[in-house]
């Protein structure tokens, strides 16, 4: 049986970050300005602390002006909203990211909606959601994980995805829905499957492109995959790994990788697939936001 091509997200993310670093250097030479990213963390959630540290480091490595605001868990909603207002008005900052989840006493949607859409590098503001849904990618900021998944698809399948049958499993606002919008804007025939979908196996078997964003370890089995299909596994699930010790764990995706690799034409691993692309696309969005806010013409799309 043939074995799928491995889509190396680490290598592709490194090439995207190198391109962004070069473009940021050009922007600095042209305008004397660096793209500026502000990341806001409220509380001490260990996973969020790691994400924020990585985002801050990646921004600095791309030559960006990078600012980190770490606020205590008991920060009031009023104080957080005031910080967002300050960052909205700060002309050295072009991208604002408020790390989710926020503590329960803070209304997440109120905070996200206060971020200026032009600085909303997560792409979660309703204005950006709307722009993406009307197909205006020139003006929108697109959520990073779906944008990164699209880069992986295009690096694998070439610039045109037109006419391909794509199935997105999962309909979250962060991954599934924007992924479906992006694939639609690439002229794919898109099906969005979710927890209430009937005959999921049959739906997936039709697909030339499968994007799994469910959060259920290895749910998508190998024999669901149409021979030669391209599989993008967004899921990140931690499962016990008794072979490495009583308390050991490992990361797996939403797709049973070894089985699916027998049928697929190309497939992303977990880890090392979509994950590294998310931060790379955050950098891309920050650069895009900076160019727009500084009225510097856009450079060719990265995807
Ligand atoms: P979510 O929980 O918000 O959404 C999950 C979706 O899966 C829902 O729309 C639900 O309808 C669907 N679903 C649940 N059970 C199903 C089933 N049995 N059959 C079909 N569909 C089903 O999750 P999310 O935020 O979209 O994240 C999905 C996964 O992607 C998680 O594992 C998450 O950790 C991962 N993720 C990875 C990155 C990255 O950078 N690689 C970023 C975001 C999320």
What's the topology here?
Elements: E1 5-6, H1 9-31, E2 36-42, H2 46-61, E3 65-71, H3 77-89, E4 95-98, H4 108-114, H5 126-133, H6 144-157, E5 165-169, H7 176-185, E6 189-193, H8 200-205, E7 209-212, E8 230-233, E9 237-240, E10 249-252, H9 257-263, E11 266-267, H10 274-293
Parallel strand pairs: 1-11, 2-3, 2-4, 5-6, 5-7, 7-8, 8-11
Antiparallel strand pairs: 9-10
List keywords for this structure.
alpha/beta; Rossmann fold; six-stranded parallel sheet; 10 helices; 11 strands; globular
Report on the architecture of this protein.
By secondary structure, this protein is an alpha/beta fold. It folds into two domains: 30-117, Rossmann fold, CATH 3.40.50; 144-275, Rossmann fold, CATH 3.40.50.720. The chain has helices spanning 9-31, 46-61, 77-89, 108-114, 126-133, 144-157, 176-185, 200-205, 257-263, 274-293; strands spanning 5-6, 36-42, 65-71, 95-98, 165-169, 189-193, 209-212, 230-233, 237-240, 249-252, 266-267. The strands form three sheets. Strands 1-11-8-7-5-6 form a six-stranded parallel sheet, sandwiched between helices. β9 (237-240) and β10 form a beta hairpin. α1 (9-31) packs parallel to α10 (274-293), α6 (144-157) crosses α7 (176-185) and α6 (144-157) crosses α10. It is globular. The two termini are 32 Å apart.
């Amino acid at each position: 049986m043939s074995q799928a091509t491995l889509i190396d997200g680490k290598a592709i993310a490194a090439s995207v970050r190198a391109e962004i670093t070069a473009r940021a250097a050009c922007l600095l030479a042209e305008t004397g300005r660096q793209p500026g990213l502000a990341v806001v963390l409220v509380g001490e959630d260990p996973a969020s602390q790691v994400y924020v540290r990585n985002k801050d480091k990646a921004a600095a490595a791309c030559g960006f002006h990078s600012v980190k605001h770490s606020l205590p868990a008991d920060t009031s909603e009023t104080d957080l909203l005031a910080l967002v207002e300050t960052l909205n008005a700060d002309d050295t900052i072009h991208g604002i990211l408020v790390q989710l989840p926020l503590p329960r006493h803070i209304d997440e949607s109120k905070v996200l909606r206060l971020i200026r859409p032009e600085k909303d590098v997560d792409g979660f503001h309703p204005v950006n959601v709307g722009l993406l849904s009307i197909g205006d990618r020139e003006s929108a900021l697109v959520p990073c994980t779906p944008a990164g998944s699209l880069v992986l698809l295009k690096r694998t399948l070439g610039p045109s995805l037109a006419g391909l049958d794509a199935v997105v499993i999962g309909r979250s606002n962060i991954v599934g829905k924007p992924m479906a919008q992006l694939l639609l804007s690439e002229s794919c025939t898109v099906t969005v499957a979710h927890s209430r979908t009937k005959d999921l196996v049959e739906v997936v078997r039709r697909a030339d492109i499968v994007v799994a964003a469910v959060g259920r370890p290895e749910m998508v089995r190998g024999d669901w995959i149409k021979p030669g299909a391209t599989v993008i596994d967004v899921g990140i699930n931690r499962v016990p790994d008794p072979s490495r010790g009583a308390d050991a764990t490992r990361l797996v995706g939403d797709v049973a990788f070894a089985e699916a690799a027998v049928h697929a034409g190309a497939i992303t691993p977990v880890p090392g697939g979509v994950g590294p692309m998310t931060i790379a696309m955050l950098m891309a969005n920050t650069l895009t936001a900076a160019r727009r806010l500084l009225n510097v013409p856009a450079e060719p799309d990265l995807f």
